[in-house]
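Pipeline run #58 for the internal structure catalog. This entry was flagged by the ingest filter as a single-chain record with no existing model, so it goes straight to prediction. Upstream metadata was stripped on purpose; only the residue string is passed forward. Reviewer on rotation: M.T. Logging verbosity set to normal.
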Amino acid sequence: NSSIILSDEWADFVEANYYSSWDEFYRLWRGLWASEDKTRDSERSRIITPALQQAVESNVSEIEEATFGHGKLFDIRDDMVDQETQDIQYLRNKLTEDFQKQRVRAACSEVLINAAVYGTGVAEIVLEEVKEMAPATEPAMGGEVELVGVRTVDRPVVKMKPIQMKNFRIDPVATCVNSAHGVAIDEFVPAHYVQQLQESGVYRDCYVGTAAQDEDIEPNPELDVVPYENKVRLLKYFGLVPRHLLKKAQEGDLAEDEEVVDLLAPADEEDKDDESYWVEAIVVIANEGVLLKAEESPYMMQDRPVVAFQWDVVPGLFWGRGVCEKGYNSQKALDAEIRARIDALALTIHPMLAMDATRIPRGHVPKVVPGKMILTNGNPREVLQEFNFGNVNQITFAQAAELQKMVYQSTGAVDGAEMATSMGGNNKTGAVSMALGPLIKRQKRTLVAFQENFWMPFVEKAAWRYMQFDPDNYPVKDYKFVVSSTLGTMGREYEVSQLVQLMQTMGPESPLYNPLVMSVVEHMDTENREELLATLEKASQPTPEQQEAQQKAQQLQERTQMAQISVF
């Protein structure tokens, strides 16, 4: 009857310091209004301008294009001398195929959105056993007949599961997943998900029940009605736990005389022995007390199945700084400007009346609507008078445009139409380079953080799991994975313009002309890019006639040099 818990200080730390900001960032990105977002008490307009939404989508699309737009997700390098190139090519193709089947790119897109909105992107590496089905034929009756059916194969697969920020727990003093005491994922899952894992033997077969409602960990904080039936609150912990408590949990006699057991409790003298006190483990708890699983880490590399990265690094903290935080102040000022203008328009456009209340019949509602008759005691010209607050100042248009530029400046996003307008007739190479250079540099910082802290660790951990649990398809060798990415769309366009201008300074007979043409084609986003590159490479190869003429010219030059030497 004992309850198993993890320290609540981790959740309390995040809730006290980040929840309110995350909720507001989420509303600004989604365009959702809330009463606490008012910039003044008399504000009536609820509009949220899309400047920050455009900045988030622009930055995320650039990182996605740079990582996945070139078609080659990663590369493999092997330091072993006897390793053949075919093995590396096979592993790269097989891993890429499995990533495509498990929709890893779509999961990465969600992680990037979370990182841009909240500042940090987190994903869990999930290992599942699936049934792969494929059409197949089988001979029957001595080969006279072929039976058509489906071949089913059970094999493990690796998936990427994006994690919402409110569902993630980490040691408050940690700066990364590996340096933390542990990490935890606290979320609601369907009840049948837990039941299926209990039937397959992954989780302990025990009564779980239903979860209590908790709006803090719901994926959408703005929902008015949240379903609470047929779901379980599942807490998955990956990290260090006391070895003696883990042994008791595996033996089934955990906390026989205790009502509550904290798996992160400090060490007692009587619990210490010759072995290390802490051990890397996986613990799964349902509904804040029911132990479903407790075991040492089964992974051969003893790594934690969680990867995370910061959109922009905040020194000394695990939680990063996203696009919404960068553009928050500019977005709030822009919304205040636009809402004030809309509120002022309501006073200047809609008709209002000033009247003598003593000369209006009692009980009459002087509401102005088309076709309505207003009764007065006396001359209406003396009783009623049209009333307005004048006109709205046109300077608000210019102020709103400048505030929108501040959003782009703070977030590093770029709007093509806005850039063309701001440069006016100065569309020369120098102006474009000066405008795009800083933006591309800022995006490269985020790209490097995503690839080195998130994408490459995920590829490595996925390959390790395939090697451990599916060695028939993945040979176990020490491969080195490296990033294979390009520039984003904006960066490629900028580089192509530089290459084209360089080509204009030389003729087709120059030895650098063909390599430059191939570089331009490599940056193009066309379907037949590979065919164009193959054609250019073939065209750059000399024909047999050209090779023969080149050999004859070389022989003639050698004979001429020998003749000159013999004369002297």
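catalog note: The longest strand covers residues 120-140.
catalog note: The chain has 17 helices and 14 strands.
status: ready for reviewer M.T.
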